[in-house]
């Protein structure tokens, strides 16, 4: 969920004005049959124009719908899984995903015979039966990521976090990201939104307690350095090469960090 931020100024059917046949009344005398004929021709032209523009119009409608729904970096994780597997190889065998709707990511990886767990940072008020089943089995936990995670150091080969970091202030990020690096063995993948993306609706604001704070890549890089988190250059390079080869363009920012050793 390749997608680029949709330009809010983009308008539906921005391909020109609808053609009209002109005024049906003329200064010169016209017969009733001629007037009726002009009306019929105008109607045919108008209908034909609408149908001829249906192709481009439908794509614009999809773009607007995508904007209304916002960009989900958790859904983007599922699109990026094949690329992540090529970049991390064997490090994808024991994965922890952290973020809203983690049940969807966990379910996808379980189908691919990957050992995976999930942390849902927010209450699962409207969770489906499959998600509740994952919680009962202990595969998915509901936990506040502003506090220490209930795992030992290096419990997972790879930790992936999406959407959740956009709702944390620097005060809590200073604690959460080093925790993610602590419980990982071969790296942390941080997936965050681009500045200007529509990410939170009114319901989400009430759920998360605050709107998403979408930061630039330079902000994140400075933050990583200040927090003592190092870039996983090897994984980042492999991810970039795999993305180019598969023509994958992330709709969210993807950062590759080293684990704490």
From TrEMBL:
**GO molecular function terms attached to this record:** methyltransferase activity
Q: Which residues cross the membrane?
A: 33-52
Coiled-coil spans are none
Gene3D superfamilies from the UniProt entry: Vaccinia Virus protein VP39 (3.40.50.150)
Q: Does the keyword Coiled coil apply?
A: no
Keyword NAD applies: no
Q: Share an example GO biological-process annotation for this protein.
A: methylation
User: Any idea which UniProt keywords this protein has?
Assistant: Membrane, Methyltransferase, Transferase, Transmembrane, Transmembrane helix
Top-rank taxon = Eukaryota
For this protein, the record's SUPFAM superfamilies field holds:
S-adenosyl-L-methionine-dependent methyltransferases (SSF53335)
| InterPro entries on file | CGR2/3, SAM-dependent_MTases_sf
Q: What is this protein called?
A: S-adenosyl-L-methionine-dependent methyltransferase
């Amino acid at each position: 969920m390749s997608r680029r931020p949709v330009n809010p100024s983009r308008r539906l059917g921005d391909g020109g004005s609808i053609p009209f046949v002109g005024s049906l009344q003329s200064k010169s005398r016209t017969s009733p049959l001629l007037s009726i004929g002009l009306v019929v021709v105008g109607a045919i032209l108008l209908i034909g124009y609408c149908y001829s523009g249906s192709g481009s119009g439908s794509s614009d409608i999809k773009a607007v719908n995508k904007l209304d729904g916002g960009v989900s970096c958790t859904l983007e994780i599922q699109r990026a899984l094949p690329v992540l597997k090529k970049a991390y190889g064997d490090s994808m065998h024991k994965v922890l995903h952290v973020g809203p709707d983690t049940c969807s990511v966990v379910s996808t990886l379980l189908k691919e015979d990957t050992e995976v767990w999930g942390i849902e940072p927010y209450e699962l008020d409207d969770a489906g039966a499959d998600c509740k089943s994952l919680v009962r089995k202990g595969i998915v936990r509901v936990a506040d990521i502003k506090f220490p995670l209930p795992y030992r150091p290096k419990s997972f080969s790879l930790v992936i976090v999406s959407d959740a970091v956009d709702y944390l202030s620097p005060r809590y990020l200073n604690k959460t990201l080093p925790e993610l690096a602590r419980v990982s063995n071969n790296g942390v993948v941080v997936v965050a939104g681009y500045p200007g993306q529509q990410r939170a609706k009114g319901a989400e604001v009430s759920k998360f307690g605050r709107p998403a704070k979408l930061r630039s890549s330079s902000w994140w890089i400075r933050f990583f350095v200040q927090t003592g988190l190092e870039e996983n250059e090897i994984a980042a390079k492999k991810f970039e090469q795999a993305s180019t080869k598969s023509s994958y363009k992330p709709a969210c920012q993807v950062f590759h960090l080293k684990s704490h050793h």
